[in-house]
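U., I forgot to send this yesterday:
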Amino acid sequence: MIHSQDLELTVIVPTRDRPQLFAAAVQSVLASLPECAEVLVVDNRSVLPVASWAADLDPRLRVTTSEAESGAAGARNWGVAHARGRRILFLDDDDLMMPGYPTWVLEQQSDNGFAPTLSFRGMTAPSIGAYLGGPGKAVVDVRPFRRQIAGLGCGFWIDRAAFLTVGEIAEDIRVNEDTEFSIRLLRAGLRGLRAPAPAVMVRQHDGLGRERGHLTAAAKAGERAGFFGMIVSRHADWLTQRPDAAKHLLQRQLKTAGAGARRSGCAGGFVHAAGSTTSAVAAVLLLGRVDFVSAQAPLASASSRLAQTRPTVASSSP
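Result:
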């Protein structure tokens, strides 16, 4: 159900089973939230429902629970569907927003935008100064291509009308779905804006959620490479006009596949990861306008390392 738009801004914070980090994230937003804005928490099926303890923390805070555990993309889509704001701003539940950034977002005349970020480690956040603000730069004028796209946790905001125009965040692309969404924004010709200064403090976790074992890491790398292939295949027609974007995506896919091979130290891991690059390689070769030699360097390097680490099978004597 789509709520009536009676506010200027909704800050959406998806969360699942991280109450301490989530509380800090929400407080960082509430500290400088404009009067015409709300914070909408999307509980992605936490074991302890967020609504049972957070609903009454602040009158500007609302909690909604997703129908099913649907990953980050699904939680954000659910949040947009239940938001009351004309403009949407995303924040991850373990990050912190700089005071003043929501107000700066409301002052902009573009359709969507994002900002640089700063990183910190540990549970104790450093002191956060006010957002510096200033004029942003049109995304279409930013180079190289990688600076035209952004993670949805990088102070990303979008007008609700623009979101409905390009469609929901792809839930079938479970990794780098923000890259695919950014490409759709570029394809639609929307007025994107890159903020002039960092707006979000991104928490770096030491050892939390990292890969468990080489084979698991290789499988995850292969899966990530496959998602890059989906993105290239889905936007192959647009990539014929943007060889710089095609090259960037292919390089990232091949680098990911090579990482899987290095971590596994076995041929099986490499075959799983590199095999998923087929669709991207074919699509980019069809473009005929990309420096494929430099793009394939990560894969060649991974192949060389694989040959050096492949175990030797001893033959048995009769």
